[in-house]
What we know:
Distance between the termini: 30 Å
Structural class: alpha+beta
CATH superfamily: Uncharacterised protein PF11572, DUF3234
Radius of gyration: 14 Å
CATH architecture: 3-Layer(aba) Sandwich
Strand content: 15-25%
Largest sheet: 4 strands, mixed
CATH topology: Trna Endonuclease, Chain: A, domain 1
Number of helices: 3
Order of helices and strands: EEEEHEHEEH
Number of strands: 7
CATH class: Alpha Beta
Amino acid sequence: MIKDASELEPWLIIQGQVPNTSVAMWRIEHGSHTSLAMFSERHLAEDYATENCDGDAHVIQLRSTELVKLMATCFGEGVRFATLDPKRGSARQVFILRDILRAARASLVSNFKS
Length: 114
């Protein structure tokens, strides 16, 4: 189990063309929550995109600062979770975006003070 999402360099699925792009989401089973879909391996993201995404989907890997910015945007839009390797009714791991963003902020402040 991954304890901290900062250990990840996940693959994401981006759909559509600029300026109307969106990131792939996954609905947490038995709930009304959607989550940011993240993948540990490129082929897992590609498989998910083939099975679940309509239209033009691209698999990408963001730098950590871009990933945190995307997570903050998702959080601002009401998304509270990120899932690692979602597939059908389960995911390998669920992360709470608020906790990831707090850790990223603490790391940034710590690095700034150094």
